Amino acid sequence: MPSNNSPKTPKTFRLDALGISAKKLDKQATFVTKQLVENGFQAYLVGGCVRDLLLGLQPKDFDVATDAKPEQISKIFRNCRLIGRRFRLAHIHFGRHIIEVATFRGPSEKLKGKYRVIKDGRLLRDNVYGTLEEDAWRRDFTVNALYLDTIKHTVIDYVDGIKDHQNRTIHLMGDPVTRYKEDPVRLLRAVRFLVKLDFKLSPETSAPIRELAPLLNDIPAARLYDEVLKLFLNKKASSVFSALREYDLFAALFPQTQHCIDNSSDNIAVELIEHAMLNTEKRLASNQHIAPYFLVSTLLWEPVRQLTKKLRPSFNSDTQAIHAAANEVIAQQINRIALPKRLTAPMREVWALQPRFHKRIGVRCIRFMDHPRFRAAYDFMLLRSKHGEISPNIADWWTKIQTLTPAEQKAMTQPKKEQKKGRHQANKSDNKIVSN
User: What is the C-alpha separation between 361 and 416, in angstroms, rounded?
Assistant: First the structure.
C-alpha cells in the first residue's frame, strides 16, 4: 500500500459497471454537489455512502467532500450552518435532513513535517486543508476512501478501495501501528466494519489490534459512549460482542465485566449478554424501539450482581445492597464510558426492582405491575431466568398473573392458607348447587 506522499493516478469506474444506480443517490446531496461544481469547485459524495451503495444498500447519510472552504460553502447555501472548532464543517439543512460537507483535508506534514506526541503517548495530527488525493490518503480504511462524482456518474479511487471491496477486505491505509496510535478509536471502527460489512481484516490491519487495545484508555469517555452505541445498537450486535472479545477490546470498554468473566467458573454472564444482543437484533429487524439503557444494564449486570453478594451482609435488604453496588459500578464505568444520567437512572431502577419478583404474596404484587419500569424489569428478570439466575417458576408466575383479571390476580396473591380456604368454600358451594 503506497504512502500518502506517493503521487498516484486514480482509477475511475462507471457507476453502472459497479452495479450502482444513479436513482439511489440522495437528491439533496446531488443538488449540493452540483451547486458547488457550478460555482467552480470540486465536490463528491464520499465515505460510507459510497461503500454502502457498492454493497447494494441504501445509505442512511450522504456526506460530501469538496475543495471549497467552509466560508465559501456558506456563501453558496443560505441554509448552511458552520460547526466545529478544530476543523470546521458545513451542514446544509433541508428541513430535518442534513447534508454534511467537509473541505478536503491534507497531511499534517504540511505544517511541521512531523507528528506531535502528547503526554499519553498517542500521535496527534493537525488538521489542514488539502487536495482530493491528499484527502483520500488521510482517511482510515480503503473502502471508505472512494469518491462518487454525481455529474459524471463515476467513482474515483486513489487507494485500491474498489479492489479491497471486491475482495471483501478491510484494509487500514499506511502503517497500521502509526494509524491506530493517531486515533485508537480506529481499533473499534475496524471491528465494527468487519462485522457490519461481513468482510475480513487484512493481516496487517488485524495484527496489532490486541497489543494496542489499551490505547483506548486514553480516549475521552464521552467519545467512547458514542462509539459504544454504534457498536451495539445494530442488527449484528451479538457478532460485534464476540469480535470485541476476540480482539481484547471489550476489556478496554467494560473492564469490570471482563474481570468478572475472567474469574467466573461458568459462562452465564457471557450467555446472558449474548442473549440480550440477539434480542436487540430481533427488535431492530422488526423495527421495534430499542432502549439503550436496557442493553447497557445487561453489560454491567454481572459486576453489580457479584458486588451485591459481597455487600449484602452490610445492608438490611437486597434492594439496598443493589443500590450500593450499582453506585460503585456505575461510578467506575463512567470513567471509561460517559454514560449519561438518562441511561444510568433507569438502569438502577431495573436492577433494584429485581428482588421484588421474589415476593408473590399481597396487594403489593399487583401494584408492582403498575410501576413505570415494571415491563423493563420483567424482561430483565426473564433474561436472568433463562440463564439460571432465577427460578423458572418465578418467571412463569409473573408471566401468568399479567394475563388474569383483577379478581383472579387478587386470589393468586393471597397467602396459601387463604387460597386453600377460598378453594374449600368454593367446593362447598359447588356441592350445594349440585345437591339442589
Answer: 9
